[in-house]
Give the backbone structure.
Amino acid sequence: MDQLARTSKQIGAAIARKRKLLDLTQAELAAQVGLRQEAISKIEAGNEATRLSKILDVIAALDLELTIGARGKGGPTDIEDIF
């Protein structure tokens, strides 16, 4: 199922959902991408200082992809209803 994410916290939540769906711990996912468990924790928390390349590595490891598109007309509350 596609998920809409407009903030770092929403991206982190989507990553955490997929990781849990795959029954992976943060440490297991971190080992797959050559990161520390703490880095996965920060990504899932929406830490804005995380390098985009690390986020993309995690997304790829979870067999996800990032799609960029035009912003929809819905308001912020509409987005929160999705999650």
